[in-house]
Write a structure and sequence with these properties.
The structure holds 2 protein chains of 2 kinds. In chain A, strands 1, 4, 5, 6, 7, 8, 9, 10, 11 and 12 form a 10-stranded mixed β-sheet that branches. A two-stranded antiparallel sheet of chain A has the order 2-3. By secondary structure, chain A is an alpha/beta fold. Chain A is globular, with a radius of gyration of 21 Å. Chain A has one domain: HUPs (Rossmann fold). In chain B, helix 1 crosses helix 17, helix 2 runs parallel beside helix 5 and helix 6 runs antiparallel to helix 7. The longest helix of chain B has 41 residues. The chains are: A alpha/beta, B alpha+beta.
Chain lengths: 267, 597
């Protein structure tokens, strides 16, 4: 059964860049910072492409942000997604608002499946997928992973880790949870968020980049969606974690014990 | 943070701010492209190299290929890497759409390839060689040859090689002896080749050798040499493949590029090695030379890439390694400072920077001229670019190799005792770098090519075009507010080189070619220093422009100005004595007799 899949591609700071907090704590210094697609979203795009390769269908990639987020949409299109939607919005967003926008896109696109990264690596909130499922009243499977390793043959053959049931009505998803893996079935349409060990995303290709240029990308102004764009979460201040103090040598176990109990108070 | 291989911001600065490469998309041939596809392609190669190629660099160096039962086995990691690198579209990136390429400018392809070369020159080497072989088939092959061989080469199902060198014919290719005897629609080849990079491996279905050989009865010398396509496996009657009597009697053990096998090839030991003529008989060397600019710029790019990765490694080390204190700090209990705090370490870093980023601008400028020579809108502009490209090629080939080797040695020096140990990577890059001054025409040959051919071309026309480029760079620098001392220094040096060239040309035209070419290597060195000074002045101008408009990263721009100052004020004046010695015709090495050694 062909699947229509909506997948997200958020523009985030490249973790390889050096991130510095502005002196006044209102944000980070963006000068000289590189950007890329959220790595968890990249895993979601890969999974969407594998599902499409296996079952047919369409992969629609969405990003929310300033015009520059087009780069991330094109990156997903270059990997093989079919078309894009850029919801244009300058200014702060929070997971609640993002899920409201995705809710509108869901209404418009009516996908069988929404695949998202489990979280974005900038704010690490891990809420959008869950909010979206709640808004739509749909089943959710978060932290999708798989039992095979990323070195396995199935992974080499680019098999999807998320398995569509024979009747095409549900998905079997292996979830990564504290202490191990748990397998759940979720009825379609469904919301699935992707964890790190679900797959190794493919690289795009130059032919893919050239094809991506010609693929349609719809631009929607966020304000036109009829969604309250005011974030519910206000960021008061950013600060860097305290500098790590150097370690120290202790003479013997009793001294170690005394320090752990008396000073560190961990015992 | 892992080694970034090439400085992203610096590369973008040279490409777009200094050279204006985004304008290439305005040429009709590149109309399907734009800054967006240029950047996407560079970014893709960057990520691939950082994630896939670079982690395999040390393993490939440590376990070179082996010969087992007459077949070469390369490092098993290459079986994984090769198909992925091919899937990116590296091999045919700059070839036209009609042959299955993506028609990306050579300038952008080179910028992207720098990451692949810096991450793992040996692994990239297979792709570079395959591109080169495919380009020969595309340019000179018959429709039947193109039909059969081009697609599998572009897809990387087959790999290509350049099988030119023979034991007695290395730099002197007109001495090749491999024979080609006509037989039906093909030729039967017999002979042996040496130092054939990628000459055999176990990562592709087939290997396609581009072989120089002499057709029976061909005249001696250059005019008797033809080019043949000789596959490892040929198409059998039943549609499958069969052996083509190409064997590998030995492997060359190398000090660098150790992941890429260099083999001895025996052709036609059983009298059954078939080859197909590519292009016209007797034009083999001419056809090869038509590709020579491209091949030599690629060698230069490898030189830049190999120096770049080592430079970036030494920056990270110098900022991290505490050792010693400021000379004014007498307190033995104060914490040690990172070695980058010592002026002499910064001297070494700045020299590396000047070489690496000067070389980067050089190879990109050469590639830009190659794009313009092929695709500029008017015949006059194409001709001008071609002359400049021809002139710059020996410099772009040799400067990164020669000065890059110095830069790689500085990377070891900065690492101190650790740099001398094989636990650290700088020594591997030094070994890799050495090849670049040897293959595709040694530095000595580049010197003779520059002085004997290139500066004399078009009645000195090429040199005047360079003069115009220097003048326009000086004007741009003056407008941008670059220190007049730097501009004057370049103007003076350019005039000195012009005068020296006239004088040497006079000796040649007076019939004394030996006297003219006596100092060709010295000439190449001083000429290269001036060319790189021109490119540093351009970078200084672009940096000043960006600072004035509050564009770009201020630290990067200040770094550019510091390196420009170093090259124009420290390095450029050093050519003075060299120019004087060349003019004087100092002849110690002409006079010295073999028995005196």
């Amino acid at each position: 059964m062909p699947l229509k899949i909506l997948v997200t591609a958020k523009r985030v700071e490249d973790p390889e860049s050096k991130i510095k907090v502005k002196p006044d704590g209102t944000g980070i210094v963006t000068d000289g910072v590189n950007y890329k697609m959220n790595p968890f979203d990249e895993i979601a795009v890969e999974e969407a492409l594998r599902l499409k390769e296996k079952h047919g269908g369409e992969v629609v990639v969405a990003s929310i942000g300033a015009d520059k987020s087009m780069t991330e949409i094109r990156a997903a299109l270059a990997m093989g997604a079919d078309r894009g939607i850029l919801v244009k919005h300058d200014g702060p967003l929070d997971p609640f608002v993002v899920s409201a926008i995705l809710d509108k896109l869901f209404e418009k696109e009516k996908p069988d499946l929404v695949l998202l990264g489990k979280q974005s690596i900038d704010d690490d909130q891990n809420q959008v997928g869950q909010y979206l499922a709640e808004r739509r009243g749909l089943g959710q499977a978060t932290f999708a992973s798989k039992t095979e390793s990323l070195e396995s043959e199935a992974e080499q053959k680019k098999q999807p880790g998320v398995v569509l049931a024979a009747d095409g009505k549900s998905l079997r998803v292996v979830r990564e949870v504290d202490g191990g893996l748990v397998t759940v079935d979720v009825s379609l349409p469904a919301i699935v968020t992707c964890d790190l060990r679900l797959n190794k995303p493919r690289f795009a290709s130059l032919p893919g980049i050239m094809k991506a240029k010609k693929k349609p990308v719809e631009e929607i102004v966020a304000a036109s969606l009829g969604v309250d764009l005011a974030p519910k979460v206000a960021v008061k201040k950013l600060s860097e974690p305290p500098k790590r103090q150097g370690g120290l040598k202790v003479a013997d176990v009793p001294e170690l014990y005394a320090k752990l109990k008396g000073e560190a108070k961990v015992l | 943070m892992a080694n970034p291989l090439v400085d992203d911001r610096g590369l973008s600065f040279v490409l777009y701010d200094v050279l204006g490469a985004a304008d290439l998309a305005r040429l009709p041939h590149f109309a399907d492209h734009g800054r967006e596809t240029f950047d996407a392609w560079i970014d893709l190669c960057r990520r691939f190299s950082r994630d896939v190629l670079y982690p395999a660099y040390r393993p490939l160096d440590e376990d070179p290929p082996v010969l087992v039962g007459g077949a070469v086995k390369v490092h098993p990691l290459l079986r994984e890497i090769w198909p992925r690198m091919c899937e990116l579209g590296v091999i045919a990136a700059s070839r036209p759409f009609e042959v299955g390429g993506q028609q990306i400018p050579a300038t952008i392809a080179l910028a992207a390839n720098l990451y692949l070369m810096a991450g793992n020159c040996a692994a990239y080497g297979f792709a570079g060689l395959t591109s080169g072989a495919a380009h020969l088939v595309e340019a000179f092959g018959s429709p039947a040859l193109r039909e059969r061989w081009l697609a599998p080469l572009h897809e990387g199902r087959f790999a290509g090689t350049m099988a030119l060198t023979e034991p007695q014919a290395g730099s002197s290719l007109s001495d090749v002896r491999t024979r080609a005897t006509p037989s039906d629609d093909h030729f039967l080849l017999s002979g042996s080749k040496i130092f054939i990079s990628g000459g055999d491996q176990d990562i592709t279905e087939n290997v396609v050798h581009m072989v120089l050989a002499r057709i029976d009865g061909a005249p001696p010398g250059t005019k008797g040499v033809s080019l043949f396509l000789v596959p490892k496996l040929r198409l059998a009657e039943d549609g499958g493949f069969e052996g083509n009597d190409v064997s590998v009697p030995g492997l060359v053990h190398k000090i660098g590029w150790r992941g890429l096998p260099s083999v001895i090839l025996a052709l036609g030991e059983s009298g059954d090695c078939r080859g197909w003529l590519v292009g016209e008989p007797g034009r083999g060397l001419a056809h090869m030379f038509q590709m020579m600019n491209e091949a030599r710029i690629m060698v230069g790019a490898n030189g830049v890439a190999t120096a770049s990765v080592a430079y970036l490694e030494s920056i990270a080390y110098a900022k991290d390694r505490p050792q010693g204190r400021s000379v004014t700090d007498r307190n033995p209990l104060s914490p040690q400072v990172p070695i980058v705090e010592h002026a002499d370490v910064r001297r070494m870093l700045l020299r590396q920077k000047a070489i690496v980023e000067g070389g980067l601008a050089l190879v990109l400028q050469a590639a830009l001229q190659a794009d313009l020579a092929a695709h500029a809108p008017t015949p006059e502009k194409r001709r001008r670019a071609q002359l400049l490209l021809d002139l710059l090629t020996p410099v772009a080939k040799s400067f990164p190799a020669e000065k890059g080797f110095e830069s790689n040695a500085l990377a070891i020096q900065i690492h101190g005792g650790y740099g001398y140990s094989s636990e650290y990577l700088p020594e591997t890059w030094l070994r890799d770098q050495k090849l670049n001054s040897i293959h595709e025409g040694t530095t000595g040959i580049q010197g003779m090519d520059l002085l004997g051919r290139k500066v004399m071309a078009d009645g000195g026309g090429a040199l005047s075009i360079l003069g115009e480029e220097v003048a326009s760079a000086c004007a741009r620098a003056a407008r941008a507010g670059v220190d007049p001392l730097w501009i004057e220094a370049l103007g003076r040096a350019t005039a000195d080189v012009g005068a020296l060239t006239m004088e040497l040309a006079g000796r040649g035209m007076g019939g004394d070619v030996d006297a003219m070419l006596l100092h060709s290597s010295d000439y190449l060195e001083l000429f290269s220093t001036v060319v790189v000074a021109w490119l540093w002045l351009l970078q200084a101008a672009a940096a000043k422009e960006a600072l004035a408009e509050a564009r770009g990263h201020p630290d990067m721009l200040q770094g550019k100005l510091a390196a420009a100052a170093y090259w124009l004020r420290f390095e450029l004046p050093r050519i003075g004595p060299l120019v004087a010695t060349c003019r004087e015709g100092e002849d110690s090495y002409a006079r010295v007799r073999p028995e005196w050694f």
